[in-house]
Design a protein that fits this description.
- There is one protein chain.
- By secondary structure, this protein is an alpha/beta fold.
- It has nine helices and nine strands.
- Strands 3-2-1-7-8-9 form a six-stranded parallel beta sheet, sandwiched between helices. Strands 5-4-6 form a three-stranded antiparallel beta sheet, covered by helices on one side.
- The two termini are 17 Å apart.
- The protein binds nicotinamide-adenine-dinucleotide (NAD) and zinc ion.
- Zinc ion binds next to loops.
Length: 246
């Protein structure tokens, strides 16, 4: 951000009443931790047919392929560490009363960075779910075939507890309430193409939040009031500095 943009942003922030600051984070916030996004040019979609690994039908047709795909993702995340952007959000939470994180990410880097009030609307890579009885268990290890649910005994139905396309996201009522009450809504590293998550941006804007996006390739979403065209860590460093001063 140049000085003029900082000046404009400072003016916008000054006009905002005090109240909840809500983050909506996507794959891009973990990119600087070395975790691939879906839609960037080196993203996961380049290598996988997404309908085969991110849809319920894909799991039905070839569970081994889906399990292998997510086992690789677990490995990536276990080897990763949070980056400055994750830590800056936690730092803001330490200094300000009401700061919430709605994340589309299935990694646990916000948690490792000490984040609080985290709403994983697309699930958690380190939980397994039985497709039959829906029992969820925490597990950092690979899910292998054959497997058996410890609760209902169903065979080969364990899968990561992540929300596949067409499935209903988690915690949407809570996320919508946060978007509605936000005074500042900060969107980081999301292409805004996955609904209903992307609808939260419109909801926050309609409810008069100041909506700020941080993304080196901005989404073009018309409900965004101010764009910081930077990577998550650099953009957030500038923004958090202004937030703590305002
Ligand atoms: P996406 O892949 O559709 O978009 C990634 C966005 O991040 C793009 O807009 C890109 O410009 C931006 N970006 C790339 N590098 C960045 C950086 N350094 N700083 C800031 N922004 C950067 O991701 P999405 O919108 O989150 O949606 C895809 C779905 O994929 C989500 O539902 C999520 O569950 C899943 N996913 C999660 C992870 C993860 O948990 N880390 C990784 C890949 C995909
Ligand atoms: Zn079961």
């Amino acid at each position: 951000m140049n000085w003029w943009q900082k000046y404009k942003l400072r003016k916008l922030l000054k006009r905002v009443d005090s109240g909840p600051i809500v983050f909506l984070t996507g794959a891009g916030i973990s990119a600087e931790s070395g975790i691939k996004t879906f839609r960037d040019s080196d993203g996961l979609w380049q290598n996988e047919k997404i309908e085969e690994v991110c849809r319920p039908e894909g799991f039905k047709k070839d569970p081994l392929k889906v399990l292998n795909f997510y086992n690789d993702r677990r490995k990536d995340v276990l080897e990763a560490i949070p980056n400055l952007a994750h830590y800056l959000i936690s730092e803001l939470q330490a200094q300000e009363k009401e700061v919430y994180i709605i994340t589309q990410n299935i990694d646990n880097l916000h948690e490792i960075a000490g984040g609080k009030n985290i709403f994983h609307i697309h699930g958690d890579l380190f939980k397994d779910k039985c497709n039959n009885c829906k029992k969820v268990v925490y597990n950092e290890n690979n899910i292998e075939l054959p497997n058996k649910c410890s609760d209902c005994g169903a065979e080969n139905q364990m899968r990561p507890d992540v929300v596949f396309f067409k499935e209903t996201p988690y915690l949407m009522q809570e996320a919508e309430a946060l978007a509605r009450n936000a005074k500042i809504f900060i969107v980081i590293g999301t292409s805004g193409q996955v609904y209903p998550a992307a609808g939260l941006i419109k909801l926050a804007a309609r409810c008069d939040a100041l909506v700020i996006e941080i993304n080196p390739n901005p989404s073009g979403n018309k409900y965004i009031d101010f764009v910081i065209k930077e990577k998550a860590s650099k953009g957030l460093l500038a923004l958090v500095e202004l937030l703590l001063k305002s």
